[in-house]
Amino acid sequence: MFQKEILRANKDQLPKLRSEIGVVFQELRLLDHLSPRENLSLPLYIDGISGDELDTPVSELLEWLGPRIGGVQIVSSLSVGAEPLLEKARSLARKPKLVLADEPTASLDLRQKVSVLRFFTKLCGLGTAVVIATNDDWLISQYAYSSQLYIESGLVQQIEGAGLASAALYNGAVEP
Fold first, then answer.
1. Is the domain of 164 the same as that of 131?
2. Is 86 within a domain?
3. Count helices and strands in the chain by DSSP H and E runs
4. Do 48 and 39 contact (CB within 8 A), yes or no?
5. Within a domain: residue 77?
6. Tell me, what's the pLDDT at 174?
7. Which residue, 140, 146, 152, is CA-closest to 101?
8. Bridge partners of residue 100, in order along the sequence
9. Centroid of chain to Cα 79
10. What are the strands, taking DSSP E only, across 7-46?
């Protein structure tokens, strides 16, 4: 994926590698006093990106999120269900090759979990690799892809995939 071992990258290569990895944290790390647009822009702005190069991916993400998120003036006025989606969308601002998600369904109700599942399934369909660390049995049982690993007694084990085909997600088979 990265054409080299990440651990062997030198100091000059790290910024480029970091820009290719999106991180979804377990707890929300949104800046409540900023707008959704500003929150989505933050990773790009930190990378020194501005103008159209910044506006295009942010506008695409806002369009994907829809008006209930994009039309809000400040994050603190978002609904509880919209905040996790904005957090996950921010991890995509740089169009990463890899997304690392730490307990992305923690403290979410079933409807929100389904939204997160659809979000990650769509990412995989677009060619982004998604690695999810979770204890959520529901998420594990529903996940559409076969590369599932677990750790038991200090050993990494692989589970052959079970769960829904990705087509079921888009055909409404998964309902909250």
1. yes
2. yes
3. 8, 5
4. no
5. yes
6. 41
7. 140
8. 23, 131
9. 18
10. 21-24
For residue 85, which of 55, 61, 102 has the smallest C-alpha distance?
A: 61
- CA-CA-CA-CA torsion for 3, 9, 12, 16, nearest 10 degrees? 40
29-55 residue pLDDT tens: 899 899 999 999 998 988 888 888 888
Residues 49-93 pLDDT 10s? 888 888 888 998 888 888 888 888 899 888 877 888 888 888 888
Question: 151 Cβ partners below 8 Å, 6+ apart?
Answer: 157
Q: Which amino acid is at 119?
A: F
The pTM (predicted TM-score) of the whole model is 0.72
Cα within 13 Å of Cα(148), Cβ side: 17
* 101 token code pair: 């998600």
Residue 9 lies in a domain: no
Q: Rounded to 10 degrees, what is the CA torsion of 172, 80, 25, 140?
A: -30
